[in-house]
Design goal:
The chain has 32 helices and 21 strands. The protein is an alpha/beta fold. Helix 1 packs antiparallel against helix 2. The longest helix is centred in the N-terminal third of the chain and has 45 residues. It is elongated. The two termini are 91 Å apart.
């Protein structure tokens, strides 16, 4: 009930109680005047009762029409009750009626009782506040009736009873006010007109009882007294008024029902959704206008269902009919419309056989054909590569998720050199080549194999066979994909690298994809245009390289990198003139990592520039320390060809020289022979820029790679370091170097016989284990401070006795340095490092 009705609900009983108390007090004060006291009590009790009835009706219902209906029903009940009381009790007893002024209170009490009973029976739960008020309202006129009767007939004892009844009525009114303030009952439903509840029983039963009593009186005692005839007329008038209200409500209800039905019909007729009612045989007994337009007249619903969906539809409908599927169910199926087109529908089925007006299954269906078509297109787009028409990565993952223990092998294919096709010929040609690759895969795979395009020029094939059989198929695919591609007037030559992994090599889908990718990478590293099967050892090697690449980042900042220095001596006098700085990495968990292992990782991970920058600064710093200490030597440091060709390299080099105040002529940069052959033109220009700064450049490992004597004329280097494999031609290289103005240093001198032959060939400088192991800076400083070995004089006897000759070469070294040489067996020279890289 809205909050605006709270005030009258609470104040009406209090107002009635207050007014009744005032009138009662007035009546008692005028007790000496009997007639006036009775009239005052009657008037006050009647007025107080009317006020309480107003509060009761306001508490019970919300509209005045409902309140009027309650009043008429209450009057009918009260009138019929008084009529029965008079005809059956008061009339036959012959007692005279009290004066009208007192009788009026009896009529008021009866009316209050009838209206209170009607309000209680028709109220909505909770009914406690209504029950309290309905009890208190008739108690007030009843107490007034007793008092008035006692005053009229001067009955003192009866006066006391009346006062007690009045006090009880006041108490009930107080309780009613309290309960009404704290427990407001829910109002009766409002909005649409409704037929009155219990109207037949409340109006018909009391009237029928009064009519029977009247017939009995007429038969037994004769005509009704005049005042009873008037009472019967009043009852009839109230009944007529009550029926008039009922007819008015019924007419309004019928009118509103007609409006609502017309509104419903207009909505249903214009709705695109279909509504059907099916009986127990699944025959349509009623169709909405939209369903009739699309499906035609009523017929068995199964005849309209798609054959592929019939079994599912019958099962779902039977579940609803049997109750095993609940009273409601959802259904997606296809039905045939009047134009012969299969339509996708989405239906909700509810069992309403218990409703007499329905008596069947109600199916609300919506045409979702267009949505299903879009969903299928989106699914195709989501699982299909638009360029080749093959499945994409998502489709492959979906298929692999359903393998469930079947024997299978996953192939990953990559086109060698495809990037050059895109860069040179254009992406249109590249797309045409990819389309031809897809066509060749479809034409040369067995039924059931799943070809997919993973992205770019990478494809995958899922084969339902073990790896040994899949290997032969992979070899055939490699040959087919390596044949030329004709695109218009162009002929494109490509090869294919294939990696394969059996499904049993992995526990899940991501691991299987990783294994196949590792096998493909092995094929790429092995020279391309080949097939490689997954190898666990290679996977461990790849994991090791990945870990090294991860840990190598920040190794310099963590202090894990250091240099060891290998002496470079004059072969004749064994005078130390320079050192080569060799990089070392000592990891706290991985231990000592060899340069041949981490330098290739640095080059592949784009970390070689960071390492090279650190190496330049560290070599210049150490060289600056030695020069300040008075040592006359130079330091060579290895640099990557990619780093030296970087645009910022000259600035980095100049910064390192200036920061450590090192003369540029004391620094030598070594570039490796097999790296020089790649892009030697740009490298020659950069070497010229470096030499212009005063820094010397050495060509390292000359003879280990694709060496060419012509390179010595084209590359502006200052020093050539001969690999041990070229010792037999050392005299030729030395003579050519002298003619070109180049210094020649021989690497890898480990045996005295080598030293003898090199001296005979005219070699002046060299390095190797025979002359000195790589050592830390402090050991080298001790060597420079403690020893100045004399020139070596070799004779035939010494050549035949290498051990004494080695002792002679190490003559002058202290016992501490000799132990240092022998102990540092874990170091390698620069040539060996670069050969491993």
């Amino acid at each position: 009930m809205p909050p605006r009705t709270f005030t009258p609900l609470i104040k009406a009983p209090w107002l009635a109680a207050g007014l009744g108390s005032a009138l009662l007090a007035t009546g008692l004060a005028l007790g000496a005047t009997t007639r006036l006291a009775v009239r005052l009590i009657t008037t006050g009790g009647t007025l107080a009762t009317l006020l309480c009835l107003t509060g009761l009706l306001t508490l019970a219902v919300a509209t005045w029409s409902q309140r009027l209906r309650y009043v008429l029903d209450g009057l009918i009940v009260a009138g019929s009750g008084i009529f029965l009381f008079y005809l059956l009790i008061l009339g036959p007893s012959g007692l005279s009626s009290p004066p009208p002024v007192i009788t009026a209170l009896a009529w008021v009490a009866a009316a209050a009782s009838g209206i209170g009973a009607v309000a209680y029976l028709r109220s909505n739960p909770p009914r406690t506040p209504i029950a309290v008020v309905a009890t208190a309202v008739p108690a007030l006129p009843a107490a007034c009736f007793v008092l008035a009767f006692a005053f009229w007939y001067r009955m003192t004892a009866l006066t006391t009873l009346g006062l007690l009844l009045m006090a009880a009525a006041f108490a009930f009114l107080l309780l009613a006010a309290h309960r009404a303030a704290h427990h407001i009952p829910a109002p009766a439903p409002t909005g649409h007109a409704t037929l009155p509840r219990l109207g037949t029983g409340l109006s018909t039963v009391p009237v029928a009882a009064a009519l029977i009593a009247a017939l009995y009186w007429v038969l037994m005692a004769g005509p009704l007294p005049a005042h009873m005839a008037y009472g019967a007329t009043a009852i009839a008038a109230a009944l007529i008024g009550r029926q008039a209200l009922t007819m008015r409500d019924a007419r309004r209800y019928a009118d509103e029902l007609a409006v609502r039905e017309a509104h419903f019909r207009s909505i249903v007729s214009g709705a695109s959704d279909m509504t059907l009612i099916l009986d127990s045989t699944l025959t349509t007994t009623w169709l909405s206008p939209s369903a009739s337009r699309r499906l035609g007249d009523g017929q068995c619903f199964l005849r309209l269902t798609h054959p592929e969906d019939a079994e599912m539809v019958v099962g779902r409908l039977r579940q609803v009919l049997d109750g095993s599927g609940g009273t409601e169910s959802r259904l997606d199926s296809r039905i045939l419309d009047t134009s012969g087109i299969w339509r996708d529908i989405e239906s909700t089925i509810s069992d309403q056989r218990h409703v007499p007006q329905v008596g069947g299954l109600v199916m609300h269906s919506r045409d979702v054909t267009e949505r299903k078509r879009l969903e299928r297109e989106l699914a195709q787009m989501a699982f299909t590569d638009p360029l080749t028409g093959l499945g994409n990565r998502r489709a492959l993952l979906s298929t692999l998720a359903e393998v469930r223990g079947r024997t299978c092998t996953l192939l990953t294919l990559d086109l060698d050199g495809f990037k050059n096709v895109n860069d040179v010929r254009g992406h249109d040609v590249g797309d045409a080549v990819l389309a031809q690759v897809a066509s060749r895969l479809r034409a040369n795979l067995r039924p059931g194999d799943v070809p997919t395009r993973l992205g770019g020029d990478e494809f995958a094939v899922l084969m339902w066979s073990p790896p040994d059989r899949a290997t032969s198929v992979a070899e055939r695919l490699r040959r087919i994909l390596s044949t030329p591609y004709e695109v218009g007037d162009l002929t494109v030559f490509l090869s294919a690298s294939i990696g394969l992994a059996g499904c049993r090599t992995a526990e899940d889908v991501p691991t299987l994809l990783r294994n196949a990718d590792i096998a493909l990478r092995s094929a790429k590293r092995g020279g391309k245009n080949r097939v490689e099967e997954y190898d666990h050892a290679y996977a461990l090697w790849m994991a090791r390289r990945m870990e090294l690449a991860q840990e190598l980042r920040g190794a310099a900042e963590r202090g894990e990198l250091s240099f060891v220095y290998q002496p470079i001596l004059t072969l004749a006098s064994r005078r130390l003139i320079g050192v080569e700085a060799l990089l070392r990495w000592r990891h706290p968990r991985l231990g000592v990592v060899e340069p041949g292992e981490f330098i290739p990782v640095a080059e592949e991970s784009s970390l070689v520039a960071d390492l090279g920058t650190w190496a330049l600064h560290e070599a210049c710093r150490q060289l600056s320390v030695w020069l300040r200490a008075g040592y006359d030597l130079w330091v060579s440091v290895n640099v990557s060809t990619s780093h030296i060709q970087a645009p910022e390299f000259p600035g980095l080099l100049n910064t390192a020289l200036r920061a450590h105040r090192v003369p540029s002529g004391r620094l030598v940069l070594e570039v490796t022979d097999h790296r020089v052959t790649r892009g030697s033109g740009a490298l020659a220009d950069r070497i010229a820029d470096v030499r212009a700064m005063g820094v010397r450049v050495a060509l390292d490992d000359f003879g280990a790679g694709h060496s060419s004597l012509a390179q010595l004329r084209t590359l502006p280097v200052d020093i050539v370091k001969i690999d041990e494999n070229l010792e037999s031609l050392a005299d030729i290289v030395v003579q050519l170097g002298r003619r070109l103005g180049l210094e020649v240093i021989v690497e890898g001198i480990e045996e005295p016989a080598q030293l003898t032959s090199l001296l005979a060939a005219g070699c002046e400088l060299g390095q190797g284990y025979l002359l000195g192991h790589p050592m830390p800076a402090e050991h080298l400083e001790a060597l420079l401070a403690d020893s100045d070995p004399p020139p070596v004089q070799l004779d035939p006897v010494q050549q035949a006795s290498p051990i004494p000759q080695q002792d002679q070469l190490r003559h002058g070294l202290s016992q501490r340095l000799r132990e240092t040489y022998d102990h540092d067996v874990g170091q390698v020279d620069s040539a060996h490092e670069m050969r491993q890289a």
